[in-house]
Amino acid sequence: xxxxxxxxxxxxxxxxxxxxxxxxxxxxxxxxxxxxxxxxxxxxxxxxxxxxxxxxxxxxxxxxxxxxxxxxxxxxxxxxxxxxxxxxxxxxxxxxxxxxxxxxxxxxxxxxxxxxxxxxxxxxxxxxxxxxxxxxxxxxxxxxxxxxxxxxxxxxxxxxxxxxxxxxxxxxxxxxxxxxxxxxxxxxxxxxxxxxxxxxxxxxxxxxxxxxxxxxxxxxxxxxxxxxxxxxxxxxxxxxxxxxxxxxxxxxxxxxxxxxxxxxxxxxxxxxxxxxxxxxxxxxxxxxxxxxxxxxxxxxxxxxxxxxxxxxxxxxxxxxxxxxxxxxxxxxxxxx
Amino acid sequence: xxxxxxxxxxxxxxxxxxxxxxxxxxxxxxxxxxxxxxxxxxxxxxxxxxxxxxxxxxxxxxxxxxxxxxxxxxxxxxxxxxxxxxxxxxxxxxxxxxxxxxxxxxxxxxxxxxxxxxxxxxxxxxxxxxxxxxxxxxxxxxxxxxxxxxxxxxxxxxxxxxxxxxxxxxxxxxxxxxxxxxxxxxxxxxxxxxxxxxxxxxxxxxxxxxxxxxxxxxxxxxxxxxxxxxxxxxxxxxxxxxxxxxxxxxxxxxxxxxxxxxxxxxxxxxxxxxxxxxxxxxxxxxxxxxxxxxxxxxxxxxxxxxxxxxxxxxxxxxxxxxxxxxxxxxxxxxxxxxxxxxxxxxxxxxxxxxxxxxxxxxxxxxxxxxxxxxxxxxxxxxxxxxxxxxxxxxx
Lengths: 336, 395
Known about the structure:
- By secondary structure, chain A is α/β, with parallel strands linked by helices.
- Chain A is 33% helix and 26% strand.
- By secondary structure, chain B is of the alpha/beta class.
- Chain B has a domain at 110-309 and 344-394: 3-Layer(aba) Sandwich (Glycerol-3-phosphate (1)-acyltransferase).
- Chain B has helices spanning 11-17, 38-56, 84-94, 97-100, 120-125, 128-137, 154-171, 200-212, 233-239, 247-255, 286-294, 317-323, 359-363, 371-394, and strands spanning 175-177, 188-192, 219-223, 243-244, 259-262, 298-304, 314-315, 329-330, 350-353.
- In chain B, the strands form two sheets. Chain B has a seven-stranded mixed β-sheet with strand order 1-9-6-2-5-3-4, sandwiched between helices. A two-stranded antiparallel ribbon of chain B has the order 7-8.
- In chain B, α7 (154-171) packs across α8 and α10 (247-255) packs parallel to α11.
């Protein structure tokens, strides 16, 4: 199995490449990213014939993507699987628009899928989506399965909208006869060092966060190591479809905010709605994304039974608090 | 006469026909000489410095001595850094043991629970039996995070326990019987009648189960979706173990082997006026479907006192509709005393648990798809609860 991994320079991408590198069934790994190769790749890129090759690439533009799929390296590596990991390290960039109404994340998803469909040698397309695309029913925590409704409210923030667009783009090809498409929806991802990703309420750098007064939604957690294991499970499985991927743990947003070195200030929901609308009108999409009233009020956990049944995936890591070298307690994952 | 067209060449032949050049179209992003990357160049320099430092046995400034990843002949060298497996194993050992332990959906028997040391005034307020029972609940949300996936938090229930215990013993003076009918483990559903403006009947039932079962069980009450929209209330309900009544939540908790408390009359129960006291409304059917699918017995439960705690004289439906509330009541004290009028009267509660109804053994999970059967079972449960209520009231 030879794999192309996109956005490998971002946290989940790094972990996926690392997991694939250590898997004996994976041959060549072509990794692409916006920036220079991460330092953890030094070991992987070493040697005359390294297992991993890395290239910088702008996936939102047609020509570079076309060049990638028609490159000599792509052909000689006999790539048969693509793991597309949308922008997640810097959500503000992911939801930034390159054309009116077309965020970068959506443009990338369209181009990657188009080229995967056109390339006859490709058999598998595994992609990661956000579980925050679901329409959240009222409540501090509700269990959601893969058939739950998506939030198609036109007033949803641009960040969520771009994830929903990506989700629907891949969803449309889930029943493709030739290309096996697997979409993994993940909640808040905890990575090494206690950093969290994919949660729209915690985007950007540490600092003050606003939250809804009287609400403290539960956030489902998953370790980035589990996400990488799920990608590997999806690559080796034979089913296509949409799967929820999550760990066993969940914490309230206020606690997660505190544990990720952020402070929070509670405002009434109506006021948050007005602040969000005003910020969006002034062009602050990234800030407005963190002020989504529904996601600041209602929480969810994910039903992962389908992934367990069809992909053979079961969470292998527990997320907990561990004391770091500086004495501070941080979120950390440990094998179950 | 038409000649047959030659068959399309297979994909492999087509691929072979494409010239295998380094750049079939445009530029190759993986080509080594595509562009000079200053970052990579800097990395190469650092790597070379590290090699030299290793050879000389001196550390590079700002960094400890480290073996280069690549030897002079280009072959990878074993790294002196800890391997991924080693790192994982050691990190796992650094984490608290509780974090690595398996999560239990059930609680251990009281005899197996070590009495925790009294810490703070809350613990001094509680007796040994209560403290032991609360300690047992911590097994439902094990681990450092101390929240289960529905937001249940044992420390929160410990904080509010003294207040509800006082209500249980001194305000509502709860008496109960039939605890032997509650299974000690596995999924089960308590189907009870409901009444009153504020759900104190549910709270007292949860307290009663917690205080009279061994192993101590936490009844997870199913609450209406409307409660999920209420600030603070939604958080409080979640932290003390109550869940919003969606099909997925219900099914998941039963699969986890938990004890559920449902009020099958739904929101209609709190709209009952004083003339309909203890007359059960039509039961919903969702809990029967879930019981059949999960193989859970249904325990009919009668709560006498719930309809007396704040009897509704009249429900002003137009006002309720306009305000988006389930009920706009007029009681002997509300709205005359303001919000204080919503508080329940100090009536005595009697809770009776009936014999478990094991419909799942007779009809199996496939019975859940038969709507007529499900409705019929729901009516049977309603009859059982009504009989239990009538018997308990006549004593």
